[in-house]
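2024-03-11 09:14:02 INFO worker-7 job=invfold-0412 stage=load source=structure_tokens
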């Protein structure tokens, strides 16, 4: 089951594109149209049961469905600043289920989808909506940098252990703490670590007769489904023994060795061969710690955190963090994150006098004699040429030959509108998507959009220069939108506009995209700092 671009969930969230998938769910980027922000939609995969009568497939789906709901419930309880925030939860409606069905799905399967969507039962397709994080994950950061300094590692662990402690306070064990589940949010020019993916978290707590010990009386909980990541699992997960907060402490120890040592502690080609040694005793852990070259104090803290017997580990995540900080003899950085959010802008050689930027087929090259970078004052009314804009933070207008160039500062999106030949308004939305490489989502608000030679669709996501027709419901072409991502140059981004060079300096915009409609002479440059 795939969600097409432009489909709306809960009459609020508009799907932009698919950004990933795992064994349990598919992840999409979407726009929250009420609050004007980019969000993440996680949809439970149903491929194990759709169109099949497999009993085992249905059993696995029932288990993953249960864990999916537990993830949403777990996240809804948590408010720590270093935990991924959940915004909403829902099920695919009847129409959404039909739209998401694979092409060629027969009518019987479609009816089954509709029945599941109507009943909202355990065979349905639930999804939850959370904050969208575009700062990468800990695994990618460590692999790029090889190792992380002790100060930076503490900066990450300080927030993550706090998030884990809050979850434990609610009786929730994460059970899958690993580098790929530590995501980063961009805040100003810094990154903030966030604990994510509570998909196999467990909160069924086995109570002891003792009172007053909090949600983990006896420090044990029993899982009914053996789900774990083999390289990051504690011994009790491997052998099906009771789990508790110390299970997550073990994973925090493994996480620390990865940050400080630059490699996965149980990175064996066949990790299953390590299971027996990890369950039976501490010989394997001690031998591998000895080869990492940590100080005796640090090795001892890590040895305790990764003891085979849970009762020999630290009881809580904050206790582990405090002991590690004392052993490292350093303090975490004062900033909210250990890494700069963006790498320095590379120094580029000056562009040639006339860069060869081929025009878009069937459309003149976008407006270039000398480099121009100044933003002149203007009223920004946007009425000339019939093109109007909305959601602009600020606007300046520069006369440019027979055109006006409108530099418009935006948060992330811009609404454009013009009047067609019948006098009816045509409206569309352009959204600059977050991420390392430039991407643009084009969505028709009163029309459809269509690449040349392709069928109209509610929305398109693009990552290179191009053009699209704006199409009515009766498939009449109302106009054409052309866009250009420009080319990187020394000091800014370079666009070719009517044979002249237009340079948008990085001081004015870290991201810039040029837009032009066939109606009117306005060239719009979306700028985001």
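2024-03-11 09:14:09 INFO worker-7 stage=emit residues=529
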């Amino acid at each position: 089951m795939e969600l097409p671009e432009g489909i709306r969930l809960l009459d609020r969230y508009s799907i932009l594109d698919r950004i990933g998938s795992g064994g349990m769910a598919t992840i999409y980027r979407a726009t929250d149209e009420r609050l004007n922000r980019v969000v993440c939609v996680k949809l439970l995969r149903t491929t194990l049961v759709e169109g099949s009568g497999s009993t085992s497939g249905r059993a696995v789906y029932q288990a993953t469905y249960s864990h999916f709901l537990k993830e949403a419930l777990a996240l809804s309880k948590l408010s720590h600043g270093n935990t991924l925030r959940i915004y909403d939860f829902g099920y695919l409606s009847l129409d959404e289920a039909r739209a998401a069905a694979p092409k060629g799905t027969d009518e019987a399967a479609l009816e089954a989808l509709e029945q599941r969507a109507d009943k909202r039962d355990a065979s349905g397709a639930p999804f939850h909506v959370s904050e969208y994080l575009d700062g990468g994950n800990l695994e990618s950061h460590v692999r790029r940098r090889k190792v992380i300094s002790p100060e930076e590692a503490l900066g990450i662990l300080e927030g993550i252990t706090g998030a884990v402690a809050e979850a434990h306070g609610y009786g929730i064990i994460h059970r899958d703490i690993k580098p790929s589940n530590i995501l980063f949010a961009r805040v100003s020019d810094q990154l903030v670590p966030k604990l994510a993916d509570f998909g196999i978290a467990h909160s069924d707590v086995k109570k002891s007769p003792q009172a007053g010990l909090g949600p983990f009386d006896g420090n044990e909980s029993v899982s009914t489904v053996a789900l774990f990541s083999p390289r990051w699992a504690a011994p009790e997960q491997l052998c099906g023994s009771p789990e508790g907060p110390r299970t997550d402490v073990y994973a925090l120890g493994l996480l620390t060795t990865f940050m400080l040592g630059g490699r996965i502690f149980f990175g064996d080609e066949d990790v299953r061969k390590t299971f027996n040694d990890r369950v039976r005793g501490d010989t394997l852990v001690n031998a591998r710690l000895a080869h990492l070259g940590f100080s005796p104090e640090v090795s001892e803290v890590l040895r305790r955190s990764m003891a085979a017997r849970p009762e020999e580990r630290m009881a809580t995540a904050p206790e582990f963090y405090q002991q590690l900080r004392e052993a490292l003899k350093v303090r975490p950085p004062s900033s909210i994150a250990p890494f700069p959010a963006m790498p320095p802008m590379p120094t580029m050689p000056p562009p040639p006098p006339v860069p060869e930027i081929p025009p878009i087929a069937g459309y003149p090259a976008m407006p270039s004699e000398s480099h121009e970078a100044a933003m002149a004052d203007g009223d920004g009314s946007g009425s000339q040429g019939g093109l109007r804009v909305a959601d602009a933070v600020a606007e300046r207008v520069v006369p440019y030959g027979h055109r006006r160039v409108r530099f418009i500062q935006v948060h992330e999106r811009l609404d454009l509108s013009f009047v067609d030949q019948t006098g009816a308004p045509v409206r569309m939305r352009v959204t600059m998507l977050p991420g390392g490489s430039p991407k643009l989502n084009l969505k028709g608000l009163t029309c459809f959009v269509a690449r040349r030679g392709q069928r109209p669709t509610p929305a398109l996501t693009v990552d290179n220069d191009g053009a699209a027709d704006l199409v009515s419901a009766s498939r009449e072409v109302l106009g054409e939108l052309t866009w250009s991502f420009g080319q990187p140059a020394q000091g800014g981004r370079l666009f070719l506009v009517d044979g002249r060079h237009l340079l948008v300096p990085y001081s004015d915009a870290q991201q810039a995209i040029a837009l032009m409609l066939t109606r009117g002479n306005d060239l719009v440059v979306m700028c985001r700092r």
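2024-03-11 09:14:09 INFO worker-7 stage=report msg="The radius of gyration is 27 Å."
2024-03-11 09:14:10 INFO worker-7 job finished
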